[in-house]
Task: structure prediction
Amino acid sequence: MSQACLDEWIARNRAQSRFVQEWTRGLSSHDMHWNPAPGKWSIAQCLDHLNQTARQYGPALEGALAKNLPMRGAFAPSWMQRKMLHMVGPANPRRLKAPRSFQAAATPESDGVEDFLHLQEELVRCMQAAQGLDLNRSKLRSPALPILRLSLGVAFDLLGLHAQRHLNQAQRVRSAEGFPGPAPDHPGR
Result:
């Protein structure tokens, strides 16, 4: 079960990378930084937030991997962990305030695409390195809330679900009335 989870998460992250590459092709910097309304994020801000999150989780993931705890059983998140995964995932319609250190810049320096693709590959590399490790017992402190300890499996799943939530948000920006760039080639995922 743990290997199947890793395979699923790796496939999801790679699909998200392909989606970002294809979906942002042809967009100008102006398009990427366009806000649909005051207080709403641009596509670049959605990617900046995901990049900030991945940068902060990276060292924590590396630390959990370094413990090298061999697998003792299948990955099985607790009820509380499943609730947390739902909260940050795309199925939750409620807006959540990002912790200060994870917030997108008001005007990101770049469109964030290249950083996103690089950080996604780093995450895939960590997932590949986790093969054979215990995704339940290998723990890390949440960069968002340091008193919270996450299992390695929950952290991997959380990052992918969280990314999908904000990629969906970026899709809504591109589909918003008044978006200055070309219409999306495909309506949604």
